[in-house]
C-alpha cells in the first residue's frame, strides 16, 4: 500500500485572487471544483492525479496568515540567470513582494511572498531541477530531516534521494516532477500550517487502512474543525506538519 502526493494546499482569505496569482506565476490553468476552492493545474493533456505532478489547490479560510514564516513553501525553477531575473520581475508585476526570512544578501535565490504573504523562492538555475517543471520543490522546515524522510518515504511510494542531518529529499519513482525536500530548522511549530500536502490512495484501496498504516508510522489524527462529513482525513506527521488523506477513488471508477 502507498499514498500519492497530489495537491499542494494553500489557505487564503481570497482564494480567487491567490489562485489567479499562482496560475499566472506557473503558466497553468485556473478552475474551481467547488465554492471556496481555486484549482491551479497544468493545461494541455494533464489528467489528475499525475504521478509526476502536484497541483495547487487554494482554499478559502477566514483567518489571515500570521506574521510567522510558513514552515512549508514552494521553490520555483529557472533555466538561466536571465530567466530568473525575468521571472522575478514578472512575479512582482503580478503582486508578489520581497520577503525577508533571514536569508541574507549573499544567497543566489530570491525570496518573495504571494499576495497574502505566503513565502516562496525563485531559484537560480540548478541542474538537479532541469526537468521538474515550474515548481522545483515543496520545501518543509523540520527539526529532524532524517526522521521526516523515513516517515514520508514510508507513507508514499516516493523514492529517497539525498539524506543528511541537514536536509533530505524524495521524488516520484518516475524520476519526473518536483521534489519533496526537508530542511533542518531548530525552531518547532508555532502556528497552524498555511501550506500542506494532500495525499491520495490508489483506486480501490481502503482509506481507513491507509490512515491506520500512517498512524503506525508515527502520524496522529487531528481535529482542525473539519467535522465528520468531509471526504478526507486530517493528520499530522512526526514533526507536527498537517496533511490530508483524500478518499480513495472507487474500484468502479
Automatic annotation (TrEMBL):
| Gene3D superfamilies per the UniProt record, alphabetical | 2,3-Dihydroxybiphenyl 1,2-Dioxygenase, domain 1
Coiled-coil ranges per UniProt: none
InterPro entries per record: Glyas_Bleomycin-R_OHBP_Dase, Glyoxalase_6
Q: Name one Pfam family in it.
A: Glyoxalase_6
Q: Glyoxalase-like domain spans which residues?
A: 8-123, 137-246
Superkingdom: Bacteria
Q: What is this protein called?
A: VOC family protein
Query: Source taxonomy lineage?
Result: Bacteria, Bacillati, Actinomycetota, Actinomycetes, Kitasatosporales
